[in-house]
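Figure 3 (text version): structure tokens given as input.
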């Protein structure tokens, strides 16, 4: 009687398993050579790849990332259901745990390697501060107050010209879809000063399941596999243009969250539309005043009194929306994002979003002036 030979992993599974440590080592080693990553990858091979993928996916009016994600998830559940049914009927043998683990590692290795190849090495490129010629150093309280005051004046002036509803909350005159259509103008204008922000990419897209995205605490997400900047279309309008420009910064290969926030602030303020200018300024004002509250509470309280009712209404609406969507899913998503960022050498995790303040202060010290706000 012949004894069945134990099932051996296929070459495909072994290759997938080896891709995981290969990608980890590549990402680790790249961190020691940011100038090389910048030249050969971020502004070289990867820039070409991202633009090709983004332009191709941009031909679809819907988010391909969302559609593919839902299709893969549905396919996985269908596969598990069919497999369990066949095992129950005796048509398939019960899978062995070691084989299942090897298949899972192979899948994880393939996905992670593609992520690193298609976009992930951008975490190891030169910082935007280096590319823009900005000098980063610890904040002085006087600088923080001065920048906060300047941003508040600019936000107040811009807010006075925008549309608002019966509750006094700002809304986008052409709606969120209009903001998606117009967002590119800010990058086109900023690229004349910061050429790293130029390029041809597919336009940002709204997500159909935006309400579910809100319960995950996400206002936007960049999909490196489709080159798409995907936006939550459900949250309030005031910070929506800045969020669009944040995800578009990721699309252009700027992976770090503080840099994407700062680039959103820049491109919004170079945008000819005041709705974008206000949104980018409001984003910066939120982060700077949060830093001021931590370092100089008394000065923060004095400045907070100067925030006009219109800006207060916008912020109250924004914060109330996210409070309504807080829960276990949002907490889990936040912890997962924190772990993901730390695994890519952003040691502050989700707190790295707040480091845009360092870039704002460096801009202030360098005397970089934003385009003036027309009266």
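Below: residues designed for each position.
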């Amino acid at each position: 009687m012949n004894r069945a030979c134990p099932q051996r992993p296929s070459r495909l599974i072994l290759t997938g398993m080896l891709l995981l440590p290969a990608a980890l080592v590549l990402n680790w080693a790249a961190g020691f050579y940011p100038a090389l990553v910048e030249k050969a990858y971020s502004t070289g091979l990867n820039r070409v790849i991202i633009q090709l993928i983004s332009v191709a996916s941009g031909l679809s009016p819907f988010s391909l990332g969302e559609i593919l994600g839902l299709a893969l998830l549905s396919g996985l559940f269908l596969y598990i259901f069919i497999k369990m049914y066949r095992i129950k009927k005796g048509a398939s043998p019960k899978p062995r745990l070691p084989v299942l683990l090897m298949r899972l590692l192979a899948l994880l290795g393939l996905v992670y390697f593609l992520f690193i190849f298609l976009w992930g090495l951008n975490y190891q490129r030169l910082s935007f501060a280096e590319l823009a010629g900005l000098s980063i150093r610890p904040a002085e309280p006087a600088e923080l107050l001065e920048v906060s005051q300047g941003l508040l004046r600019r936000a107040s002036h811009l807010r006075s010209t925008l549309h608002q509803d019966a509750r006094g909350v700002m809304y986008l005159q052409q709606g969120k879809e209009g903001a998606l259509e117009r967002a590119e103008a800010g990058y086109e204008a900023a690229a004349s000063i910061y050429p790293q922000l130029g390029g041809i990419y597919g336009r940002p897209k709204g997500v159909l399941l935006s309400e579910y995205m809100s319960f995950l605490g996400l206002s936007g997400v960049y999909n490196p596999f489709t080159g798409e900047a995907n936006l939550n279309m459900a949250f309030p309008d005031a910070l929506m243009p800045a969020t669009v420009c944040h995800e578009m910064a990721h699309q252009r290969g700027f992976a770090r969250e503080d840099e994407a926030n700062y680039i959103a602030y820049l491109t919004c303020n170079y945008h000819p539309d005041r709705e974008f200018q206000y949104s980018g300024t409001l984003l910066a004002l939120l982060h700077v005043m949060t830093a001021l509250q931590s370092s100089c509470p008394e000065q923060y309280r004095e400045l907070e009194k100067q925030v006009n009712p219109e800006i207060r209404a916008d912020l109250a609406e924004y914060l109330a929306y996210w409070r309504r969507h807080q829960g276990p899913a949002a907490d889990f998503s936040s912890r997962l994002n924190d772990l993901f960022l730390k695994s890519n050498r952003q040691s502050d995790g989700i707190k790295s979003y707040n480091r845009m303040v360092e870039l704002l202060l460096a801009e202030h010290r360098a005397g970089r002036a934003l385009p003036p706000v027309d009266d």
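The first helix runs from residue 11 to 30.
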